[in-house]
Design brief:
It is a single chain. The chain has 15 helices and twelve strands. By secondary structure, it is an alpha/beta fold. Helix 4 runs antiparallel to helix 5 (136-146), helix 6 (149-173) packs antiparallel against helix 14 and helix 7 runs antiparallel to helix 13 (377-391). The radius of gyration is 29 Å and the shape is flat. Homodimer. Heterotetramer of two MnmE and two MnmG subunits. Residues 214-363 form the TrmE-type G domain. Belongs to the TRAFAC class TrmE-Era-EngA-EngB-Septin-like GTPase superfamily. TrmE GTPase family.
């Protein structure tokens, strides 16, 4: 990391203030070339910025100097708080290139922080999730991870495996010495307890991943059951075309909602019936596929119509059954053995209760967990592997094989935090970041 990098840390476009960050061994020289003498560390100083080659004044800016290792990246770093005009930003960027710096790649600042030991890989992923957070619950989960909740949990497990490995190695190396009785069995017992903790962590119904990625809720029903009107009412805007003509919706129409802090994609689908043409056949096929993929299905019936067989097939446990158009007829007491939730998308009756029920259902599936949850498939894969290696201690015939199983479990957990070789995943992790972070 011999290069000095810079990037705009604030949003692109015209603004009152733009923040430009620098990091690397040449930061002090680049800063001095533009702003003169370095300001006191971590104190803002108002300076005229000049081009190092032409001496042209580029801006009057606040300059902050963060000598390493007490900086975000662990390197010498700086911030320039500029006026946010595009010409100012472009001029200062050109001057920094002339002073020997280069534009940063996406995620390069945080990657340097990781490589310099300022944070672990799970914390880096938490920062990426924090930047991308759409809802309050996503923000809370990402912030906990960025502040090291997962690193603490997995680091504690790694420490325990390391201690078990030391005891197992002692049993191997000093088998003829006067070691405590039952040392080998004690290692297996402790490994089994740890495996149970990891299994409980894995058995979380994917809550953390669902919250991070958002839930899919599909609306199913017969043509003219009021599905599109329901989607528009929940979205608070005209997202789908509404018509008295049956079969208006041919493709999936999606809107994004925030339900109790959980991001939800609500999908209106084609009406379920015997298709009249090949376009409707495809629309119905997509509707069924979306329902099969969904985390929650809203099965909608019209209160003024008899339930149809196609939609009744989707009345099952875990499905939320709605009786729409209660402004035209009262909701039946039961549809397919389930009491439906009465609602009128046209008048708004029952919508508050529906929103509350949806918030309850989505929170149950992806609400903020009491403990730090798994948030990425790679975490789940590594922990599953670690648990599998710990299970090997129950059947391994030799102490040397039990020690190797412990080493393999330790490596698997180490890949999550980045404490062992993870070069293959670094580009994928930091490629998700925006430039400037």
């Amino acid at each position: 990391m011999t290069d000095t990098i810079f990037a705009l840390a604030s949003g692109a476009g015209r603004a009152a203030v733009a923040v430009l960050r620098l990091s690397g061994p040449g930061t002090a020289a680049a800063l001095a070339a533009l702003a003169g003498a370095l300001p006191a560390p971590r104190h803002a100083s108002l300076r005229r910025l000049r081009h190092p080659q032409t001496a042209e004044v580029l801006d009057r800016a606040l300059v902050l100097w963060f000598p390493g290792p007490a900086s975000y990246t662990g390197e010498d770093s700086a911030e320039l708080q500029l006026h946010g005009g595009p010409a100012v930003i472009a001029g200062v960027a050109e001057a920094l290139v002339a002073a020997g710096a280069r534009p940063a790649e996406p995620g390069e600042f945080t990657r340097r922080a990781f490589l310099n030991g300022r944070l672990d890989l799970t914390s880096a992923e938490g920062i990426a999730d924090l930047i991308a957070a759409e809802t309050a619950a996503q923000r809370r989960q990402a912030l906990r991870q960025a502040e090291g909740a997962l690193a603490t949990l997995y680091g504690g497990w790694a420490t325990r495996i390391t201690a078990l490995l030391a005891r197992q190695e002692a049993f191997i190396e000093f088998e003829d010495e006067d070691l405590p009785a039952g040392l080998d069995d004690a290692v297996a017992t402790a490994a089994a307890a740890l495996r149970a903790e990891i299994a409980a962590h894995l058995a979380d119904s994917n809550r953390g991943e669902r919250l991070r990625e958002g839930l899919l809720v599909a609306i199913l029903g017969a043509p003219n059951a009021g599905k599109s009107s329901l989607l528009n009412a929940l979205a608070g805007r005209e997202a789908a075309i509404v018509s008295a003509r049956a079969g208006t919706t041919r493709d999936v129409v999606e809107v994004r909602l925030d339900l109790a802090g959980v991001p939800v994609t609500l999908a209106d689908t084609a009406g379920l019936r015997e298709a009249a043409d090949e376009i409707e056949v495809e629309g119905i096929r997509r509707a069924r596929r979306r329902a099969e993929e969904a985390d929650l299905v809203l099965t909608v019936f019209a209160a003024d119509q008899a339930p149809d067989a196609e939609t009744l097939a989707w009345v099952k446990p875990g499905v939320l059954v709605l009786a729409n158009k209660t402004d035209l007829a009262p909701a039946p007491a039961s549809i397919g053995g389930i009491a439906p939730l009465p609602v009128s998308a046209r008048t708004g009756d029952g919508l508050a209760a529906l929103r509350a029920r949806l918030a309850e259902e989505t929170t149950a599936r992806a609400g903020l967990a009491a403990e730090a949850p798994l948030t990425r498939p790679r975490h789940r894969a590594a922990l599953t592997e670690a648990a599998g290696w710990l299970a090997e201690l129950d059947t391994a015939p030799l102490p040397e094989l039990r020690a190797e199983a412990l080493r393999a479990a330790l490596r698997a957990i180490g890949r999550i935090t980045g404490r062992v070789g993870v070069e293959a995943v670094l580009d994928a992790v930091f490629g998700e970041f925006c430039i400037g972070k």
